[in-house]
From TrEMBL:
Coiled-coil residues: 104-131
Any single Pfam family the record assigns to this protein: TPR_1
Record-linked Gene3D superfamilies: Tetratricopeptide repeat domain
Keywords: Coiled coil, Repeat, TPR repeat
Identification of the protein by name: Tetratricopeptide repeat protein
TPR repeats: 132-165, 168-201, 202-235
Organism superkingdom: Bacteria
Family annotation (InterPro entries): SGT (IPR047150), TPR-like_helical_dom_sf (IPR011990), TPR_rpt (IPR019734)
Keyword Metal-binding: no
Keyword Membrane listed: no
Single Gene Ontology BP annotation: post-translational protein targeting to endoplasmic reticulum membrane
GO molecular function, one term: molecular adaptor activity
GO cellular component, one term: membrane
Length: 256
């Protein structure tokens, strides 16, 4: 069999697989979607954020534990990151050093501030049930804590009130919450609607980049994230995602 024929067969097989992947029916949503991290590791060898009770973490060394905490913080917010830090301390107390304790304390301080913000927004809502800004902002704080399911009703309410000052932001924020609760198509619809309302929102372009990245569309992810950086380079967690996408797109050294 000639090499040209073998190559042709291989290319046809790849093409058939790509077409099947593109047009296959969407799977039914799981009743309780499980958080998975499709992000590549942050110098840890980790490609999945496991549930906190999974025994796989017990095999990690200290370097991997620290990377897992950072990845969890990046992807899921302060509260899940703190829970993982406590698990690190419990599983490997001999490796949990002063730097780890300081990082854990900083996370706890941030969480305390965020919970105070939630109380303040809740008080505002109690005074005025039509305060769309308070609903959106409380939902955003819940996103920072990683409480995505809790956040969605707040964004629903902010959107229902149709207040122009937060309408686009609420769609974008709800899109991110949908992305983190395993509903990528609803996430994409919300994020794109937010961009129609406010094309210069760097947060929405960042979230669109995250969506594309987690769907494996790296070139589209990079374009969206770079546009977000052009609009506002200080957008939270943007630089971390840019590094992840650029590393994923970088040519691999065959000798490595």
């Amino acid at each position: 069999m000639s090499p040209h024929f073998t190559l042709l067969v291989g290319l046809l097989a790849v093409l058939a697989w790509l077409l099947w992947r593109q047009y296959r029916p969407a799977p039914a949503p799981a009743a309780k979607p499980r958080r998975r991290a499709n992000l590549p590791p942050i110098s840890t060898g980790i490609d999945t954020v496991f549930a906190l009770d999974e025994p796989a973490y017990r095999k990690f060394d200290a370097r991997q534990w620290r990377g897992a905490v950072q990845l969890c913080l990046l992807r899921d917010g302060e509260l899940p990151g703190l829970r993982l830090s406590h698990l690190f301390e419990k599983e490997r107390p001999g490796d949990f050093n002063d730097g780890d304790r300081a990082f854990q304390a900083a996370l706890q301080e941030n969480i305390n501030k965020l919970k105070l913000n939630i109380a303040q927004y809740t008080a505002r809502i109690a005074q005025s049930a039509s305060d769309a800004v308070a609903y959106n902002n409380r939902g955003y704080v819940l996103l920072l804590l990683g409480e995505y399911k809790q956040a969605i009703p707040d964004f629903d309410q902010a959107i229902a009130l149709r207040a122009t000052e937060v309408y686009a932001f609420a769609h974008n924020n709800r899109g991110f919450a949908y992305l983190r609760t395993g509903r990528p198509q609803k996430a994409l619809a919300d994020i794109e609607h937010s961009l129609l309302l406010d094309p210069d929102n760097s947060y929405a372009h960042r979230n669109l980049g995250i969506y594309y990245y987690e769907q494996g569309q790296l070139e589209a992810a990079l374009a969206a994230l770079e546009l977000a950086a052009t609009l506002n380079a200080e957008t939270p967690r943007l630089n971390a995602y840019l590094r992840l996408v650029r590393n994923a797109l970088a040519p691999k050294d065959p000798a490595a």
